[in-house]
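[step 3/7] fold_predict: job queued, chain A
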Amino acid sequence: MARLRVLLVDDARSERLLLRHALTDVDRHLEIREAGDAAAALALYQRHPFDLVFVDIRMPGRDGLSLCRELRAFDRRARIAVVSHYSTREHVLEARDLGAIDFLAKPFAPARLERLLARVRGLAGDGTDGLPAAAVGVEDGAARPAGDRGIARRPDTGSVSAREGDPPVRPLPITGLRPWP
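[step 4/7] structure written:
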């Protein structure tokens, strides 16, 4: 199995280090490089494209979504996963429209990274680099984009559901913070 080349782009060195550790816990055979800003990331990618690029949204100068645009302009098959503490519906939809293959809200479970790496390995050469059309909902703490559907509150129970006819999902009370995986 060929080693996946992964680029981590985040202005916070500590966030890059956490993501690097999470990735190597999932797959010790990754070749991981880091960039602290969009300009450095684009320069690295232009020298040798990566199999997967993790991009933070909020960075000084050019933000992560601008970097997504530039990477896709340079290489329309670039596989980009947007990661952020700021996961609004607008961010998720814009990332999808820019061709991101996933959006991970921090913190996320290691299982999300496992599935993402498996998808990237499976995408090699098949041309299916976009996000799947799925209802907006929550999976392991991250919003999932699709269409123009939103979260609807059911008037009879006060619970929320992603689509008409979906079973209700009751919001859980926050009882404590869980440690970074």
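[step 5/7] annotate
The chain is about 30% helix and 20% strand.
The two ends are 26 Å apart (CA to CA).
exit 0
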